[in-house]
Design brief:
Elements: H1 9-18, E1 21-26, H2 29-32, H3 52-55, H4 58-63, H5 65-81, H6 86-94, E2 100-105, H7 111-115, E3 120-122, E4 125-132, E5 138-139, E6 165-169, H8 178-190, E7 193-197, H9 209-215, E8 219-223, E9 236-238, H10 242-258
Parallel strand pairs: 1-2, 1-7, 2-3, 7-8, 8-9
Antiparallel strand pairs: 4-5, 4-6
Helix pairs in contact: 1-10, 6-10, 8-9
The structure holds 2'-O-acetyl adenosine-5-diphosphoribose.
2'-O-acetyl adenosine-5-diphosphoribose binds near residues 28, 33, 224 and 226.
């Protein structure tokens, strides 16, 4: 039976307690309560006049490298000022309960790492990594001069080939990083439960993951205040924000672990 509110948390806790391998798949909604704007929210302020194709495509970067590099510099400052909310810490606590917990995230903000989660697959890359635009040679992050005011400055050049350096994130029209993608699809196809948090399920191929898990026999649980494209794949739906539902889930799991008295 489909359950559709936070009253479903004890049922989710029982499922997780019985699972050996659990995947938590997160999207932009996971970071909302930490104050990080989603991709579209981030096109505000001075950036409102640009369209996404100008700021998040290789063609846009090659046309205006300083502008695009500047936009990512601004986004890095927003992310560095943010603090992981209690939902992030709940996912770290979950690692002590679940034998194999993997986080697959579409987010580029690195908050799962900062909170202390051990196994995180970043499908769309990271704001804190860099590579050159031609050959994708890695470029050391500590050589990126980062000033908040410096939002219109040419990026550095690759030490190996001289090409301009770009953020190591997935832009529109690009393939996801191969090794991370293989690992994500593999664990999705063999997990016992997948908890999908804060994603609209609109961006492919990440949106496929809950369906991969469901078709392989896993229980899919959605945590999101609103219905999404993922909802049809879910056997249990918790309608609520990640910062409230995830800590409540870990508390319920601790109860379940203790067992009936
Ligand atoms: P979206 O912005 O498409 O969806 C955010 C989801 O979070 C929505 O379903 C909201 O209902 C939900 N949400 C909002 N607040 C929440 C909260 N407090 N707790 C839980 N959920 C909440 O974000 P994504 O599905 O992650 O791709 O898609 C974003 C992707 O689109 C990015 O990774 C980026 C962009 O194009 C690339 O860069 C390739």
């Amino acid at each position: 039976m489909l359950k559709t509110d936070e009253a479903a948390i004890p049922a989710v806790a029982r499922l997780i307690a019985a699972a050996r391998s659990v995947v938590v798949a997160t999207g932009a909604g996971m970071s909302r309560e930490s104050g990080i704007p989603t991709f579209r929210d981030a096109l505000t302020d001075v950036w409102a006049r640009y369209d996404p194709a100008a700021l998040a495509t290789e063609a846009g970067f090659r046309r205006h490298p300083a502008r695009v590099f500047g936009w990512y510099t601004w986004r890095r400052h927003v992310v560095r000022a943010a603090v992981p909310h209690p939902g992030y810490h709940a996912l770290v606590a979950l690692e002590r309960v679940v034998p194999e917990l993997t986080i697959i995230t579409q987010n580029v903000d690195g908050l799962h790492h900062r909170a202390g989660s051990a196994r995180v697959l970043e499908l769309h890359g990271s704001l804190e990594r860099f590579s050159c635009v031609d050959a994708r040679h890695p470029f050391p992050a500590d050589e990126i001069a980062d000033s908040e005011e410096d939002t219109d400055r040419a990026p550095p050049h690759c030490h190996r080939c001289g090409a301009p350096v770009r953020p190591d994130v997935v832009w529109f029209g690009e393939l996801l990083p191969a090794a991370v993608t293989t690992a994500a699809w593999d664990v999705a196809a063999r997990c016992d439960a997948m908890v999908v948090v804060g994603t609209s399920g609109l961006v492919w191929p990440a949106a496929q993951l809950p369906f991969v898990a469901r078709d392989a026999g896993a229980a899919v649980i959605e945590i999101n205040p609103a219905p999404t494209e993922v909802s049809p794949a879910a056997s249990i739906v918790c309608r609520g924000p990640a910062g409230r539902v995830l800590p409540a889930l870990v508390a319920a799991l601790t109860e379940t672990e203790r067992g009936p008295t």
